[in-house]
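Q: Structure for this?
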Amino acid sequence: MSRWEPDARGRMVAAALELFAVQGYDRTTAGDIAARAGVTERTFFRHFADKREVLFSGPGSLDEMVTQGIAAADEDAGPLQMVIAGVRQAAVELVEVRTREQAAERARIVEATPALRERELLKMATMTAAAQAALMERGVAELSAGLAAHSGAAVFQTAFSRWVSGETDLDLPESVDEAAAALRDLC
Amino acid sequence: MSRWEPDARGRMVAAALELFAVQGYDRTTAGDIAARAGVTERTFFRHFADKREVLFSGPGSLDEMVTQGIAAADEDAGPLQMVIAGVRQAAVELVEVRTREQAAERARIVEATPALRERELLKMATMTAAAQAALMERGVAELSAGLAAHSGAAVFQTAFSRWVSGETDLDLPESVDEAAAALRDLC
DNA sequence: GCAGGTGATGTCAGAAACTGTCATCACGGT
DNA sequence: ACCGTGATGACAGTTTCTGACATCACCTGC
């Protein structure tokens, strides 16, 4: 028998999700989460750089999916088409990992907590930067790549928001298509 | 003579700017800033909700300028034109308050510090939400308003970044025009 | 003038978020 | 059987942020 139960990280993530949901982020201490997961507070901070990160430590980050999708996009597509392809790819992979219910629960917590919202925005900015770099890798000029990457992020955020809130009955990838079409109409 | 020197807040902002510039955000404690400003740490936290906020407490927030600019936009303009008008308005008012040098120095500090970058992204998201609300106030549908607001934010961020980095010789409002034109070309 | 209210500040105690350091001890290989 | 490794615990310490109360120049009304 092991000295410690396995998957301490997974237990901490689950504990944090439950505690944040029932008593809120602010009234949940890192020690609370650790105790519920059967470890010490010190161990919590060994696994997560800070208290917020426990909700943002998925194995596959969006960055790679988007970057991959851009790299695989059609050769003669414009920057916007490429980044939409990347974002759609990320959407497809996201629904394979999480149910709409899970995503909605997590989104509810993040939305209710400014500190968590900040972290989410930073992750999104990182994804945007990665998308811009991937576009430039394919020969798009810096200015256009930046704007296209931001547009892609906007499409993703919009599609995700509508998906988890139930404003649309579409699944996430189709919601991305819908938002992308709306963006095209805008110009 | 007063019991205390006037403009404690201004002294704290100046002290923070100097200390962050020379020794970095992380190695500057709230107590350091307070001491250099001639007040106590407790007074620092009475003026600023947290340590980061000392760099984000300008009197005129971008929200209002953008909102105002959208409200004043041409009647028969599309959503994107309206939000660009709002962003341009914010750009005009920003250059009246800060020189390019000041903006660049501050941007350097924020860029170098993830914690500050998070706060900046949150402010930008707040501005985006305000822009979306202003657009909806003028009859734009929620979906279009959200995407247009995000596009406006992208234009502003891009223009600002190019302005402070010196990638363009244009002044900020003209840099906004340039970025807006590039966005139009994208579609 | 002067009594009392007001507001900005100081002082102090304390919770919570992290960080550094060292000890422990199952496990896996030699 | 021995030793290195890696994850964890234990503990002290710093920093961020909050609550409670005291202080005292300034203003206001009388």
